[in-house]
Amino acid sequence: MSQAALSAFSVMGDQIGSGEPQTASAQSLPAARRVVYGEAARRLLLRPEATSVAALVILFLIFSALSPDLFPTRQTFISVLSVAAELGIVSIGVTLLMIGGHFDLSVGAVLGLTSYVATVLMRDAGVSPIVAAPAAVLVGALLGAINGALVVRFRIHSFVVTLGTMLIWRGVVIALTGGFPIIVKIPPLFRDVMSGPLLFGFRMSMLWFFAIGALGTFLLARTRFGNWIQARGQNEQAARNLGVPVDRVTICLFMIASGLAAVAGVIQVARFASVDALRGEGMELQAVAVTVIGGTLLSGGYGSVIGTMFGAVTFGVIQVGLVLAGAPGHFFRTLTGFIVVAAVILNTSVARRMARSRPLAGFRRGNVETDAALFRDFDSATAEAEVEGPSGFSAESAPGSRR
Amino acid sequence: MTGAAAPRAASQGRLPGGRGSREIHTARRKIEPIPDGAVPVMEAISISKAFGATTALVDVSLRSYAGRVLALLGDNGAGKSTLIKILSGVFPPDRGELRFRGAPVRFVSPAEARQLGIATVFQDLAVCELLSVTRNVVLGREPLKGVGPFKWLDMKRADEMARSALLRLGVRWERGLDERGVNISGGERQSLAIARAMFFGSSLLVLDEPTSALAVRQAGKVLDHILEARDQGQAVILITHNFRHALSVADDLTVLAQGKVAAHFRRDEIDLDELTDLVARIA
């Protein structure tokens, strides 16, 4: 990425970083502090989340301009987040898997099949949802383990394996449901816990989404398994040579992806009180789109769960925003397509960007002491101007971004 | 594990020029003979290996001792990589025996070899490009904190481990430990891999072409690190087809040709011209 482009971006970066206070006060800041902000912005731009946050901010502004009365309202945010939550939960699993260097096209079908399992357990076997829901998630994990085992055992590309299992599971769902919706009576408590109203009209699914997102981020950034996921995606042979149980990591990742698809399936069952033959169809590709918008490299090895969460919200904003703007339905696909392509273009150069991008004046690249100084300064500078910015971009998460 | 750098052995065999600025040095130099009764860290006895109709190794024997560098020379296809893959447990030999510290061993997987302290550094496979230096160093041996099943990375200790691993090899890492793999040069990658192997308690260091694809100065540094590893009591097997590099650090040299041991020398029995002649004649 050229310097010109980078500096063009740093304007955007300022907005991402901590909202208006920075840009507004940039003139009055002492030069040293401006460099601190600039350097912080530069580092933020090297983060995988940068693309999705930029997309989100831009789309938000556009839709707010298009329908100023309808779009920036709480009702909109509620709809956006309920779209984002279910898709987001599926996407988080797909993201972890993709960082590990694999694809999963079967998550949509797994969502359908596990929804069916949960529904039938409750309707025909009369099982309580407290048992049925975990059972469905277990079935999901099992289906994921099958994917993983096939990939590991036969050394076939996961794309092909999961393409096959996608068709198989979908066929099974269609056969079992006979193509008709199955309706089930859902105990209200269960519905409320999974997808019921939360404070201010937000749905419980949002809480699940955030909780799973936080767990996923922690898993990726702060655990041994997370380190192994990234290593698996970047250099499988090196990881294997160093004693990382690469095959086990792969199988676990498939189990997580399918398990989370099942969680989303259970949430949908609770919300719709039914399951149909096409439940979850198309979600596998939407999840890939969300993941890519969220800054995860298609080639694996690098990405972010937080980015994916922003990506899912972006998806929700497009969907709801277009409806509110009165656009025809097919616009949704077209616009999403454009954003996916743009995101990939921005993200694929991330490695090159990292290698090329030079620290701003006064900062040696990645020096521990200057880093400490930088973030101390950054912290105190933002302390008074702390904004309720998107999580993950608050000042205290910045030191973590160094790794 | 985190012990301070081992006291540097008296610089016997140390080359003139000093660390970091040394030239690659190929003149004759005095080598201590292997002491009587010393048990090799790794011994291969009459190893043979064939892949289908292709014979890769025939009756190859070698011994690698602690504190000595064994250079394995040979052209492409001479069987060098097959031999090191057998030594590092990637596949077993068809015939013959491996002995580790005198005891026969039969590796089922590279993990078993690694557990015995056999660290193999493969060319180009040392570093994950988008992980930080710290994460690269501790990969596979991440320090954890937390209780019971809830354990997470102890990044502070990981940083300490990375720093002391590099320091122990005499690498002064001037940039941050958060530097990503993409920004690390080829020579630094090899240094990092050697540091990592030594830090995690290897007793045999197998290096596959660590200096090919490196600029002269970087190669010199990597060779220095090999000497440092040797001085700290590692047994080192260095695979290379660069005679100068081999002569400048090795104590013993084994030349492989067409899957057989074609010649074996102590370093002071041969110089560059003789070695070049010899290999030309064999191959």
Structure description:
The complex is a heterodimer of chains A (403) and B (283). Chain A is mostly helical and 403 residues long. Chain A is built from 18 helices and two strands. Chain A has helices spanning 3-18, 20-25, 31-45, 50-66, 74-99, 107-123, 129-154, 158-177, 188-195, 204-222, 224-234, 236-241, 246-272, 283-293, 305-324, 331-348, 350-356, 368-383, and strands at residues 182-183, 274-275. Chain B is an alpha/beta fold. Chain B has two domains: 65-93 and 107-127 and 187-282, Rossmann fold (3-Layer(aba) Sandwich), CATH 3.40.50.300; 131-183, no CATH class. In chain B, the strands form three sheets. Chain B has a six-stranded mixed beta sheet with strand order 6-9-10-3-11-12, sandwiched between helices. In chain B, strands 2-1-4-5 form a four-stranded antiparallel beta sheet, covered by helices on one side. The A-B interface holds A 218, 222-224, 226-228, 230-231, 234-235, 237-244, 301-302, 350-351, 354-355, 364-368, 371, 402-403 and B 110-111, 114, 120, 122, 125-132, 134-135, 138-142, 144, 151-153, 155, 175-183, 196.
Shape of chain A: globular
Name the quaternary structure. Answer: heterodimer
The major pleated sheet of chain B works out as:
6 strands, mixed
Q: Rg of chain A to the nearest angstrom?
A: 22 Å
Number of strands of chain B: 12
**Cα radius of gyration of chain B in angstroms:** 19 Å
Please state how the strands of the largest beta sheet of chain A are arranged side by side.
1-2
Q: What is the molecular shape of chain B?
A: globular
Helices and strands in order:
The complex is a heterodimer of chains A (403) and B (283).
Chain A: H1 3-18, H2 20-25, H3 31-45, H4 50-66, H5 74-99, H6 107-123, H7 129-154, H8 158-177, E1 182-183, H9 188-195, H10 204-222, H11 224-234, H12 236-241, H13 246-272, E2 274-275, H14 283-293, H15 305-324, H16 331-348, H17 350-356, H18 368-383
Antiparallel strand pairs in A: 1-2
Helix pairs in contact in A: 1-3, 3-18, 4-15, 5-10, 5-11, 5-13, 5-14, 5-15, 6-7, 6-8, 6-13, 7-8, 7-13, 9-10, 9-13, 10-11, 11-13, 14-15, 14-16, 15-16
Chain B: E1 42-51, E2 54-64, E3 69-73, H1 80-87, E4 95-100, E5 103-105, H2 110-115, E6 118-121, H3 133-138, E7 144-147, E8 150-153, H4 155-168, H5 186-199, E9 204-208, H6 216-231, E10 235-239, H7 243-249, E11 252-257, E12 260-266, H8 272-282
Parallel strand pairs in B: 3-10, 3-11, 6-9, 9-10
Antiparallel strand pairs in B: 1-2, 1-4, 4-5, 7-8, 11-12
